[in-house]
Amino acid sequence: MKRILITGALGQIGSELTTYLRKIYGESNVVASSKNREAGSKIVEEGPFAIVDVLDPGQIAEAVEKHEIDTIIHLAAILSAVGEANPTLAWKVNVEGLFHVLEVAREKGCAVFTPSSIAAFGPSTPKDQTPQDTLQRPTTMYGVTKVSGELLCDYYFKKFGVDTRGVRFPGLISYETLPGGGTTDYAVHIYYDAIQKGKFTCYLKEGTAMDMMYMPDALDAIVQLMEADPSRLIHRNAFNVTAMSFTPEKIYGEIQKHIPEFIMDYDVDPIRQSIADSWPNSLDDSAAREEWGWNPKYDLSSMTIDMLDKLRKKLG
Ligand code: NAD
Question: Residue 141: what pLDDT?
């Protein structure tokens, strides 16, 4: 039986992962944490919760001891667009925060799951069907922190035997909690605006292809990799995973099949456009498929049907 601590649990992934893991492992075995307590949050109220600022190693260690944690799912981070606006904070939270988590895991014998990102690649990386093992020279601070994190996790496994695992997530699309300031956020906001306004202004230009995934597949990926037989894992950290790759005009066209009057125009944000241009168009995720059976369920068409249905119910 696992006893799990989730850092950054009130964010886009954590707010759904906490509930999902509580269903699998039992409510009392999944401790959500964040640097503040958000009153009214379902996650804070429905099960154990701890205040953990990942910049404070004492708070991480205290939560691990108090709740007898054996697995840390480390989600606390600063995302790409926010990280470009505040690179110092991105370095501190993403690298120093992870370092503190790994140190506590080494001392207390915990396993660690940490997501990396497609941001760990850069303009010199092969853009199409980006291989698992390839050139990684990212040009954003977020990307620099993600490559550093991948290397730190590999190091802690090889040097200290800490059971570190992780995936490189593409842009994640979900309806529960809004994204936290990434470059792929448009692919969430477009669904809200399609329903609420019938019009969407895209900050990326036509033809900008990026990998994406629907949240239910992302949650499955985390559990599948955490539960994978370690003897089959050649890579451990930073597995490429993807479910679909699309451009703004492709997702627009898909939504229009269900809302024919929906219109989209463009007002390009040069910062997020240059970040997107430095990332792959599509990933090769065959290592994840071979080593732990990765096999996403949703494509653009089935995700769009589900997103519109869930959002219509949520937004009333
Ligand atoms: P998010 O921004 O929605 O949530 C991150 C949470 O971390 C926030 O609630 C924030 O308050 C918290 N946080 C920030 N600083 C903290 C600190 N010092 N101590 C404790 N908590 C702190 O992010 P997310 O989308 O849930 O992403 C989780 C992880 O997945 C991150 O590592 C991110 O890089 C990675 N990832 C996400 C995506 C995506 O599309 N959402 C894609 C690729 C990778």
Answer: 97
Mind listing the domains of the chain with CATH numbers? 4-169+213-240 (3.40.50.720), 172-211+243-279+297-315 (3.90.25)
Atom 29, ligand 1: which residue's CA is nearest? 75
CA dist., res. 12 & res. 28, Å (int): 22
Confidence tier at 180 by pLDDT (50, 70, 90): confident
User: Does residue 153 have a pLDDT over 80?
Assistant: yes
H/E stretch holding 104 reads helix 97-108
Comparing CA positions, the residue from 72, 43, 47, 39 lying closest to residue 57 is 72
- Residue 288 above 90 pLDDT? yes
Show the ligand 1 pocket: residues with CB < 6 angstroms: 7-8, 10-14, 34-35, 53-55, 75-77, 79, 93, 97, 115, 117, 169, 171-172, 179-180, 182, 184
CA of 13 to the centre of ligand 1 (A): 7
* Mutation to probe ligand 1, out of 51, 147, 169 (largest number of atoms < 8 A from CB): 169
pLDDT of residue 269: 96
Give me the active site residues, please.
142
Q: Which of 130, 123, 117 is nearest to 286 (CA)?
A: 130
Are residues 275 and 268 in contact, defined by beta-carbon separation less than 8 angstroms?
A: no
CA distances 164 to 21, 145, 296, Å, are 18, 17, 22
From 5, 6, 10, 12, give the residue whose CB has the most ligand 1 atoms within 8 Å, as the site to mutate: 12
Distance CA 131, CA 158 (A): 23
* Interface ipTM > 0.85: yes
Check residue 38 and give its pLDDT.
Answer: 79
Handedness of CA 257, 258, 262, 265 (dihedral sign): negative
Average pLDDT along the chain: 96
Structure tokens at 14: 């954590």
Provide the whole-model pTM.
Answer: 0.97
- Would you place residue 186 in the very low, low, confident or very high pLDDT band (cuts 50, 70, 90)? very high
